[in-house]
Amino acid sequence: MLNTEKRNERTTHIDKMPTAQMLAVMQEEYATATAAVAPELPAIEQAVEAITKRMKQGGRLFYMGCGTSGRLGVLDAAECPPTYGVPHELVVGIIAGGDGAIRRAVEGAEDSFEAGERDLAAFSPTQNDTVIGISVAGGAAYVLGALTLAKEKGALTVALSCNADCPIEQIADIAIHPDTGAEVVTGSTRMKAGSAHKMILNMISTAVMVKLGHVYENMMINLRPSNIKLRDRMIRILREITALPYDAAERLLEENEFNLRLALNAYEERK
Question: Structure pTM?
Answer without folding.
Answer: 0.93
